[in-house]
Design a protein that fits this description.
single chain; mainly alpha
């Protein structure tokens, strides 16, 4: 993605231990050293793979940070409301502008039509941008101490990302500017949010798989492939898919579809007949393929 595309999307706004105490030494044990109390590990989003590289969370950074906090039911409900409302806005924008999203692929090659699509889509995000940053809105839904913990987790993660990418740039003989790194990573995170919007709809839409396939009019061979993919996926996930497994379903289905078929799937899933909020997509995971069992 060239700098113009990055700037346009960035301008639109970017879019989760018990403490154990060891037994005390007997008071009359003169040889015993001082009692040491274990402290619980400080939560962090910093996780690395076998190569020492940072692992990007499957969730939005802010949502992944929330999952690390010890929130009350009321606090989870408050932050969940924020996430659901923002997801609904993004789903609506994505669903109403699929043609623009389909044109994004050429933006990295400075395709004028693709660049215009990025610019036009950015203007559609005003309802989301008007709410402000996600980290700020979530922090406002929490008490001051937990809001600060959330911000600390968020800040630590972004500092680690900028450092890693700056180091990688230097090793490649380039200059890694923090602002450009931030823009690029924000764009990647926003792209992941759009992908999760697709996944919410795809997973929900598969509850009516027979009806969906009938409307799409796929070839018998392709329809059979999609049915097998969804049935195998359901057996693998036991009806309780993780975020990574949701992504696998979308990837597998799209892999067997032609570009025009992918566009038709998205249009159908984002129509009034289908779709789900973030919360509905989670609950639908209980049995997302039940109507397809007769494939």
């Amino acid at each position: 993605m060239n700098r113009l595309a990055i700037a346009l999307v960035l301008a639109a706004g970017s879019t989760a231990l018990a403490q154990n105490q060891p037994p005390a030494q007997p008071a009359n044990d003169a040889l015993a050293g001082p009692t040491v109390q274990e402290t619980k590990a400080k939560p962090t989003l910093i996780k690395r793979d076998f190569n020492g590289l940072l692992v990007r969370p499957d969730l939005a950074i802010e949502e992944a940070a929330l999952d690390l906090l010890d929130l009350t039911d009321e606090e989870r409900a408050a932050t969940g409301k924020v996430l659901d409302e923002r997801a609904a806005i993004l789903d609506s924008v994505v669903g109403n502008n699929l043609d623009l999203l389909i044109q994004f692929n050429g933006a990295a090659d400075r395709n004028p039509q693709s660049i215009k699509a990025v610019r036009d889509f950015a203007t559609k995000l005003e309802p989301l941008r008007a709410r402000g940053r996600l980290i700020d809105e979530l922090a406002q839904a929490l008490p001051a101490d937990k809001a600060q913990d959330l911000r600390d987790l968020h800040k630590e993660y972004w500092q680690a990302i900028i450092k890693e990418e700056s180091d990688n740039a230097r090793k490649a003989g380039e200059q890694g500017r923090p602002r450009e790194i931030l823009a690029t990573e924000t764009l990647k995170a926003f792209g992941a949010e759009i992908r999760r919007s697709y996944e919410r709809r795809v997973v929900s839409g598969t509850r009516e798989l027979d009806e969906l396939l009938a409307r799409l009019g796929l070839s018998p061979e392709t329809e059979g492939q999609v049915r097998k993919i969804t049935q195998d996926w359901f057996q693998e996930t036991l009806g309780r898919p993780t975020e990574a497994q949701r992504r696998q379903l979308t990837t597998r289905i799209f892999a067997v579809l032609k570009p025009d078929e992918r566009a038709r799937v998205l249009r159908e899933i984002y129509s009034d007949r289908g779709g789900a909020s973030r919360k509905q997509a989670d609950s639908d995971g209980a049995d997302p393929m039940s109507p397809a069992s007769g494939g």
